[in-house]
Amino acid sequence: MVFWIDRSTNKIERKSLDGGEIQHIVSRHLHSPESLAVDWVHNKIYWTDIRLKQIERCDLNGSNREVVFNTGKRRPRAIALDPFEGYIFWSSSGKADKVERVSTNGRHTKRISKNDLKVIRNLAIDVIDKRVYWLDIGKRRIESSNYIGKKRNRLLEEISPNAFGLAIFEQKVYWADSVDNSIHSIVKYGDSPESRVDWSIFVESSPKGVCINHPSTQPSFDITGSFNCSTHSDCQIDLPDLTPDPSRSYLIYANTTSIHRIYADGSGHMTIAKAGLSNISTIEFDPLHKMVYFADHGRGVIERVRTDGRGLEVVSTRGVDSVEGMAVDWMHRRLYWVDSVGSYIATQSLYPGSRHTILMSSLDEPHGIAVHPALNIIYWSSWGESPKIEAARHDGSNRVTVAASPVRPTKLAIDYTHNKVLWIDAGLSTINEADLDGTNHRVINRGEMHHPFGLALYGELMWSTDSEQREVLALDRNSGEKRVSFSGDWIIPVDVHLIHSGRRVIGDIDPCQVFNGGCEQICIYAHTNQAICNCETGYHLRRDRVTCEPGKIKNKFEIKIKIK
C-alpha cells in the first residue's frame, strides 16, 4: 500500500500498488496535514497537522485515531519513525526550524538539532545505522546526525530549492526535484559531497516525494506469528504458549535428528523440532523474528522454526545437499550458507526471494561461515588440501586470506564487541581468535574438548559442543577453562546458539583498519563502521565505488573553432 496526503481535499488516502480503488483513511477533522509516516511494525500511520499543532496516529485502515503529542507553540512539519526504538522524529517551525524527537507514547521529548537550520522540508530514518536525515531547503542542504544529535554530517550543499522527499536505501540517499522533473541520489559517506553524487533520472510528472519499495527498508517483527504444519506429520494444532521467558538466557542446540531449547541454568528443556528430521548439520538464529534456521543433509533442505516449535517452514531446497555452515545478517535481512560438496557460498533474503551464488571459484570444501553486518564482510573456513580461513565482501569481491595454517577449521563466530573472529580447529581440538584482519592470532583453549563443533559467544563465555563427550559447554572467553556443561545420553550435539534478551551491539571500528575497507587504493574513514574509497592521483573510481582505473589526461590547451 502507498499512503499520501491530498492537500486539495485535506484527506489521508491509500491505494494498493497492485491496483484497486483509492481508499480514504482519514477524511474528517484534518486542518493542515503536512507529513505522514507508516509504522510497519505496529501497523499504524502517523501525521503532523500544522494548524492543530499536534501529531496524530491511527490504524492503517483509519480506525483508533488518537492524538499522540501536542507540540505547543511550535508547528510540526516533517515526520519520520523508528518503530523498533519507539521514536518519532519531527521538525518544528518557528523563528528557525528544529529537529526533535518524542517517544511513540508521547513522552520523553528531546531536541536533536537546532543550530544552523532554516526550513526543514523532509525527514528520513536509517533504522540500521540509527541516523536521522533532513532536507533543509532554507539552507539548501541534506544533513544527518545520530539519534541524540551527535556526529552531525553534511551530505550535500547547494541543493535545489525545489527539492522534495527524502529516502534511504543501503548506502544511498534519494530525493526528487519538482521543477526539473527528476530524482537524484548521493552516496551517504565520503570525502566530499561532490564526489558522492551518484545518479539522476528524469520522469514525466512533477515529483513531490520519493519512497523505496524493498523488504530490507522495513524489517518487521512477526507479531501474529505463523503456523505451518505442512512439513511435519505430528505437528500439534493445539500447542500451548511455549514462548521462552524473554528475561532469561537460553540455548538452542541441535542433535543430528532434533533441535532443542534449554535455559542456561539447565532447566526448562524442550524439543522444538524433531519429526521427520534426518541429518542436521548446522543451525543459526535470527534475533528479529526469533526464528531458528537449520540445514538437514538427509533431506537436502534449509528450514526455519520459531523458538516455541511453531511455524516450521522450508526456506530453500535447490542445491543444498551439504550445507555445513550458515550465518544470518540480521541488519540487511539475509541468510548466507556454504555447501561443502558443491563448493559454493550462497545468499538469500530472509523474506521471500531468489537464491544468489556469490562465490564458487577456488573453493575447496567450505565448512563454516560468519558475517559482520556493519562491515559487509563474510568469513568462511575451508577443509580442502590447503585449509584456511578467508574473508570477502558480502558480494564475494575483495577476497583475502585471514588464517593460512589451521589443520581442520570448522565453525566460525564474530565477536562484534571486541572486533575479533573466532574459529574451531577440529584437527587440534582448539578454539582460536584473531583480529578481523587475521593479525594477533592466539589459541584460547587446549585440552578442554575432544571434538569441538558448534561455537557461540555471549559476554565473557564461549558456548561450544563436544559430540564425542556428548556435552554442551561454556568456556571462559579469556582463559579457555570450562565453566558450565550439560551432558547425558539424551544429547549428541552438533551445533549451539545462545539466545539472550539484550540487543546485538557492534563496537566502534574504523573499517579502513580491516582489509583497507575493501578499497583498492585509498580508504577514508567516514563514520563508525562506515568508509568511502578514493584513488591516487591519476586514477578515478570505477562504478563499483571500490576499484580504480587510470584517468584520462586532458590536453592543457584546447582550441575551439566555431564555423558558421
Provide key terms for this protein.
Laminin; Neuraminidase; single chain; four-stranded antiparallel beta sheet; 1 helix; disordered C terminus; mainly beta; 564 residues; 47 strands
Please describe what this structure looks like.
The protein has 564 residues and is mainly β. The chain has 3 domains: 2-217, Neuraminidase (6 Propeller); 250-499, 6 Propeller (Neuraminidase); 511-550, Laminin. Helix content is 1%, strand content 48%. The strands form 13 sheets. The chain has a 4-stranded antiparallel β-sheet with strand order 4-5-6-7, with no helix packed on it. A 4-stranded antiparallel β-sheet has the order 8-9-10-11, with no helix packed on it. Strand 8 and strand 9 form a beta hairpin. The longest helix has 4 residues, at 193-196. The termini are far apart. The model is unreliable at 221-240 and 553-564 (pLDDT under 50).
Radius of gyration: 26 Å
Summed up, the helix count is: 1
Quickly give the structural class. mainly beta
Helix content: under 10%
Average pLDDT: 84
Q: CATH homologous superfamily name of the largest domain?
A: TolB, C-terminal domain
Number of discrete domains = 3
Reported CATH architecture of the largest domain: 6 Propeller
Low-confidence segments:
221-240, 553-564
Dominant shape: globular
Write down how many β-strands occur, each being a DSSP E stretch of 2 or more residues: 47
The main pleated sheet reads as:
4 strands, antiparallel
CATH topology-level fold name of the largest domain? Neuraminidase
> Looking across the biggest beta sheet, what order are the strands in?
4-5-6-7
| CATH C-level name of the largest domain | Mainly Beta
Strand content: over 45%
Distance between the termini: 57 Å
